[in-house]
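Example 4.3 (complexes with small molecules)
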Amino acid sequence: MHGKTDILSLTRKELENDILSLGEKKFRALQIFEWLHCKRAVSFDEMTNLSAALRKTLSEKFFINFLKITKKLESSTDNTVKYLYELADGNHIETVLMEYEHGYSLCVSTQVGCKMGCRFCASTIAGFRRNLEPSEILLQLYEAEKDSGRKVSSIVLMGIGEPLDNFENVMRFLENLSDEKGTNMSLRHVSLSTCGLVDRIYDLSEKKLGLTLSISLHATTDEKRSEIMPVNNRYNISELMKACRDYFDATGRRISFEYALIDGLNDARDDAIKLADLLKGMPSHVNIIPVNKIKERSFTSDRKAAQRFQKYLEELGVNATIRRTLGSDINAACGQLRREYEV
Ligand code: SAH
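Answer. The structure with S-adenosyl-L-homocysteine bound is encoded below.
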């Protein structure tokens, strides 16, 4: 935007360096950081403990990014709220606010569209446009909290996009989210879901962030997985499982496996046996998701099948739960609202 720096995307350290280079004292950077991330200021004019001259300089060098709520859908059956946000460049993304017993959870997007091509997913149909900036991921939280008046206690990176395909920006988002001088959310309350970009899983292990890694597995043989998830042609199941074991060894964090159940494709007892084999010896948890119908595809499943599959897994000693379906009356599954709006 006019060659100005996106100030909400800067980490506290980077902001400090920029403020020092303007000839200001270091504590000013902290004041500004708190205005942005604690008081959630939307303009430099609000920063009343800074001089008018400094506020003017800031507005010449930086801009405060923003999202606009284009549409908001509230479920009538549970407290789920789905936001369609417009970004400053006119693109759209989705964010879902969900209520659980332990508090509110927010599902955020990390990209506009997605390159991964999973066959059952609405987010990938129109392809990929661009990565989200750290500020645009963070603002999904700030705007949802402001609009709803609710305090979000956990975040899942499970909206539109593949978070590990936007690695640097997602890492900066996590740094700002967990900064003790800002929102200060423990990364123990964050889950990152990936379709399995193995190289990036190793990069993530090295960072030892304490977040929960969710793997979208969805099938237990390379043949079936490649059929529904093209990423499997790049990194096959055995490479993926090796990276998962490494992640657990490096971080001590139990891995969560997403398993979208699809009628006749991956819901047989034999699939459960293969799944149990893959997970043998690895502390893990399986999240069974009855596949969400999207109008462009014919995949289906139902709750009964999910219960049956859960029972198979239990008999095999695998820890599994069925994902609660929230907001089904407002199409809260990822990518669907944006598609309706943009196409
Ligand atoms: N790209 C990341 C995160 C976004 S998708 C990933 O692949 O994990 C979040 C989860 O929703 C993934 O497990 C994804 O496979 C699943 N998903 C996508 N479309 C779905 C659908 N129609 N029904 C059920 N789950 C779906």
